């Protein structure tokens, strides 16, 4: 009827994560627990639910990781300190031609410590660590994937200095083909656009992108170009295996002397770091298998120390997981695209 005032529409949906203005006019985000958090201007056009998802699922809290925690890999550690860690700690020095790369690609066999290096960079640089995978950025809703990428970089800018670590980056930035799914192509394009807008120098955002992959040859050429520093993380050499084995045995009662530990390290040429860890775990079960009687009636004091024989038995169960053919492929890619060590 004309002249009748219609009642104001009230949404039946309770939007607990909606952005609102408080009494002072400051824009805030109302969280699910009822608390209000001020919104940074860089997040004003980002979906609050995506911001909360990134903070809850992608931002990792980690224990302090030092370079001493990583056995071997001296060339990689030295290169990363000079080109990444120091510039993030002293951005005013590393400007102009000394400006560090925006991206660091770590490639090599699985189980060699690439993820540990990413965490160490963040820890030593006093940076916020973002750990993402392709599944973290995908959604069943069309368009949400690229929005999540945009939200990730926006949140990272609010928590600088920041390290965005991408494990299995080849699954997200694989080479583009004619038959590629449109949603995947859009996520990839948005990521590359955001990649171009970051850096870790004093003149730009202090954000570093660290990618890790076991299949560097499958990465898109445009993505490979953006990772200006590409480091090969090889299998640990003898000294690296020795340091790792000593570290793993520190907290375990054992009766191996120095010569026996060296003997095991000589027998494990071609083993990755994860292979060495698996070997030590298998050997540690030796005293448990030697128990006579019911396991429920045995005390910790009844377990004998780990012996050299336990390791010899474990060597028949845990073998090297990386083939010589795979190693040749990594070395060829390193020679063509990698930041090689002197004399390699």
TrEMBL record:
Keyword terms, alphabetized: ATP-binding, Nucleotide-binding
Q: Which residues form the AAA+ ATPase domain?
A: 100-237
Q: Which GO terms describe its molecular function?
A: ATP binding; ATP hydrolysis activity
Q: Does the keyword Magnesium apply?
A: no
- PANTHER family with a match to the protein in the record: AAA DOMAIN-CONTAINING, FIDGETIN-LIKE PROTEIN 1
Q: Which SUPFAM superfamilies match?
A: P-loop containing nucleoside triphosphate hydrolases
Q: Which family does it belong to?
A: Belongs to the AAA ATPase family.
Q: Where is this region: Disordered?
A: 1-41
List the protein's name.
AAA-domain-containing protein
Pfam families cross-referenced by the UniProt entry: AAA, AAA_lid_3, Vps4_C
């Amino acid at each position: 009827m004309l002249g009748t005032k219609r009642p104001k529409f009230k949404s039946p949906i309770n939007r607990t994560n909606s952005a609102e203005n408080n009494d002072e006019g400051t824009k805030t985000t109302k969280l699910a627990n009822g608390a209000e958090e001020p919104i940074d201007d860089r997040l004003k056009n980002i979906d609050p639910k995506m911001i909360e998802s990134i903070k809850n699922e992608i931002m990792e809290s980690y224990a302090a990781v030092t370079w001493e925690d990583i056995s071997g890999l001296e060339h990689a550690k030295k290169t990363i300190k000079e080109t990444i860690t120091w510039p993030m700690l002293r951005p005013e020095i590393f400007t102009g031609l000394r400006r560090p790369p925006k991206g660091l690609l770590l490639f090599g066999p699985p189980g060699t410590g690439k993820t540990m290096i990413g965490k160490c960079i963040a820890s030593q640089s006093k940076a916020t660590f973002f750990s993402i995978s392709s599944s973290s950025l995908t959604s069943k809703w069309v368009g949400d994937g690229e929005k999540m990428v945009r939200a990730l970089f926006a949140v990272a800018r609010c928590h600088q200095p920041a390290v965005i670590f991408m494990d299995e980056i080849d699954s997200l930035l694989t080479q583009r083909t004619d038959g590629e799914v449109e949603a995947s192509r859009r996520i990839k394009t948005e990521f590359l656009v955001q990649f171009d807008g970051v850096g870790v120098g004093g003149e730009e955002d202090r954000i570093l992108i660290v990618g890790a992959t076991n299949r560097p040859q499958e990465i898109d050429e445009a993505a490979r170009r953006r990772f200006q520093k590409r480091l090969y993380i090889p299998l640990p050499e003898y000294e690296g295996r020795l340091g790792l084995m000593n570290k793993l045995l520190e907290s375990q009662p054992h009766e191996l002397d120095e010569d026996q530990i060296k003997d095991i390290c000589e027998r494990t040429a071609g083993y990755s770091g994860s292979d060495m860890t698996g070997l030590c775990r298998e050997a540690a079960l030796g005293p448990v298998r030697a128990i006579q009687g019911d396991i429920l009636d045995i005390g910790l004091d009844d377990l004998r120390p780990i012996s050299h024989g336990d390791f010899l038995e474990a060597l028949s169960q845990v073998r090297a997981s990386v083939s010589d053919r795979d190693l040749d492929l990594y070395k060829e890619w390193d020679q063509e695209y990698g930041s090689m060590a002197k004399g390699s």
